[in-house]
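question for whoever is on the cluster today: can someone run the full assembly for these? six chains, 824 residues total. i dont have access anymore since they changed the login thing
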Amino acid sequence: MTGVANPKRLPRAVREQQMLDAAVRVFADRGYHGASMDEVAELAGVSKPMVYLYLGSKEDLFGACIRREAARLMERITSAVHDAATIECRLVSGFEAFFGYVAEHKDSWNVLYHRARALGPPFADEVDRARHDIIDAVTGLVDQRGASAGEAGALSHALVGAADALAEWASRTGEPATVTTARLMNLVWIGIERQIDGASWRPASS
Amino acid sequence: MTGVANPKRLPRAVREQQMLDAAVRVFADRGYHGASMDEVAELAGVSKPMVYLYLGSKEDLFGACIRREAARLMERITSAVHDAATIECRLVSGFEAFFGYVAEHKDSWNVLYHRARALGPPFADEVDRARHDIIDAVTGLVDQRGASAGEAGALSHALVGAADALAEWASRTGEPATVTTARLMNLVWIGIERQIDGASWRPASS
Amino acid sequence: MTGVANPKRLPRAVREQQMLDAAVRVFADRGYHGASMDEVAELAGVSKPMVYLYLGSKEDLFGACIRREAARLMERITSAVHDAATIECRLVSGFEAFFGYVAEHKDSWNVLYHRARALGPPFADEVDRARHDIIDAVTGLVDQRGASAGEAGALSHALVGAADALAEWASRTGEPATVTTARLMNLVWIGIERQIDGASWRPASS
Amino acid sequence: MTGVANPKRLPRAVREQQMLDAAVRVFADRGYHGASMDEVAELAGVSKPMVYLYLGSKEDLFGACIRREAARLMERITSAVHDAATIECRLVSGFEAFFGYVAEHKDSWNVLYHRARALGPPFADEVDRARHDIIDAVTGLVDQRGASAGEAGALSHALVGAADALAEWASRTGEPATVTTARLMNLVWIGIERQIDGASWRPASS
DNA sequence: GATGAATGAGAATTCATTCAT
DNA sequence: CATGAATGAATTCTCATTCAT
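^ ran it for u. tokens below:
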């Protein structure tokens, strides 16, 4: 009975991280509504009141998960992009980091992308903020020169959408991040380049 | 009380459609777990037992929504693509139809795309089938000639992902389907063309 | 659609019997609370309102079942006992008739004995009346001469109880009514005889 | 409101017994299907979630009742029989204990005997096990010497059936257990004795 | 005579959340 | 610091019962 596996009396910061780990896992598996605080507490190895004491309500807990995971993803991408020279290299590095992250942290991505998106008003803000941080980062990659705001915004949305779908594909086929990155670059790089140069596709019919 | 003022004693087929309309709306707004059968019934202007009698369990009801909405979207795309001559034209028509549909039937798209994806085993099949019908249609557009199966699959996943993200963007900015289509073609058409021709992007560094 | 199997427009008396047949079956299978009017109606091949129109509420329907089946059992026993000469013969004939009935009409016995007994106040009367008709008949068999009322009552209760338990035993082993009857007579006949003669068992210890 | 005025925050073991007490009472009064978890909780003086937390589903709860009550009855009979010397004494002690138990714990007997019997597959096992423990005990009393298995089985079924019916009779007339026991011995002892000795009743007619 | 359409009421079960210790 | 005990409020689903045709 007396603490073999779970040392009691851990410092607060550690316990909080354990709880968040558990929460991310449960939210990823069941979605926000499907998750129960009971399960989170059990998986974290603490009693429910502890969860409430440390992280607040279910809503708060979900928010905390989103923020922590989004920050982790951002950091991974940012540091990957950091010391690449050309736009092309930045994109490649960024995509590779992204695909790598998704492959290595399925739960994290699951919560962020699948579970959190479009979850009624109380969460929309939190999630949108997180998602926009990422899209903005991509916009930053592409929009080094003067594409108009609208253009770059749409472009990065499309890129992130495509990347997301490919991440899923990659997680099913198990292909390495570099290959998936190549597929994506294959599809979009020339388009991006031309867009940066100001050229654009015209309907063939006209 | 909130439902439309309905004449009583409608024939079954009519009531079923009303219920499905309501269900799509509610599932779109709240997600599967967040939706309550009470709300569906109220919005449909009937009592709960009618919903259970006609459409079965919540799970069944959700499945019925998915199937109906997926069929509608597919029909719209299929008929748009039908009489276009070149691959390029087909893509343009297909995207326009898609963006048009998403713009005009927000709830439908919401259920199909945001709410239904990644919803545990009981639904995975139904949803996956619907989603794959669409992706297969896109694959069919692109893969008229001999891109290898894997290539085409990844490509169409990426295209659908990009289109989805742009649809969201468009729904926020309110731009017409033709403009969004142009943005997307701008980004990907050359890449597609080259891929059809067998050329591909190479990492610049090597 | 138009009546191949179930001729429509049957005379009321026939329909009522069909419904009662169905009801006995369903009540036997599921018990009073577990049975649903839907199932009864379906099994009877009519719509629910017909059941209500002809037999009244669920409670009424159950009562009607009890009465009909109890009457059938009583008639079987009564006519078997009718032309036996001695008390012993009457008992044997009565038990054989009883065991035979239980073996041949499982549902009927099930409803009467298992499902109906001890079913809260609304039914207690109906069921008790039916059960007492049978016990009274047994009392009549045994009490031809002057056992005091109390004695005979207790005796016949015990006999019916034993017979009931043996009926169940017989229905499991499938042994013929005559054998089961012999078992029972084996156990109780001498005791009955002595009781009729006024002799009685005395505790051995005194 | 109806429950006993309970001090709050009782230890689990205590609360569980209170809940079982209430459940036995309610199941006895209404039968399995007729009983509602609401009523059980109210009578136990706790909220429904506590019942589910401690005892599980309605089915589980019913099973727990059956097990507890069957064990109590068995213990009473076993300890009564324990130090009687002859078969006759054992039977007398056993019956007295049984009639005493039924008289003193009406609800318990009601659940065990009337409510639980013949209750569809999910319960059949539990109930049958409990019931057979009792019948086996009786078989053990009677079958000290070599009555064949079938014989002894039928005999003990019949005895338990008779005892049950007499218990009911006794509970109506209020007569003491010793008197009811005498009635039963009066009826069956000679039959049992002869059966032990291998003699048996023969149809008078042959 | 017969039924499809419809519902009010209540069932089991679960969950987020909070005290008292 | 930490938890076992406890619950109000929903949620899904079913059922007996009745109209309108």
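summary bc i know u wont read the tokens: The mean pLDDT of chain C is 84. Chain C touches chain D through 53 residues (CB under 8 Å).
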